[in-house]
Design goal:
Elements lengths: L2 H26 L7 H4 L1 H20 L4 H16 L2
Helix pairs in contact: 1-3, 3-4
């Protein structure tokens, strides 16, 4: 599998995990301190998915200024949430 495919599969996995978490919490009808949304895990999964999509996009063509800035902000956010 090529690098772009690997990046997109990883992005899809992160986005799917975040989606499953949001669906579960929506079914429960409330956000509680111990769940993935309140803990920030869902946000981190979505941020990582978007970072991976931008990484895949950069494999095929250069990111424009806004995308490059977004990528940098996502990296900084993810590094600070470790």
């Amino acid at each position: 599998m090529c690098n772009v495919s690997s990046l997109l599969m990883a992005a899809a996995g992160s986005a799917a995990a975040a989606t499953a978490s949001m669906i579960e919490i929506a079914r429960d009808g409330k956000i509680v301190p111990a769940d993935n949304i309140a803990s920030g895990e869902t946000t981190a999964l979505l941020a990582d998915a978007l970072r991976l999509v931008l990484d895949a996009q950069a494999e095929g063509s250069a990111l424009d200024d806004e995308e490059y800035q977004l990528h940098g902000a996502l990296v900084r956010y993810l590094e600070s949430s470790l």
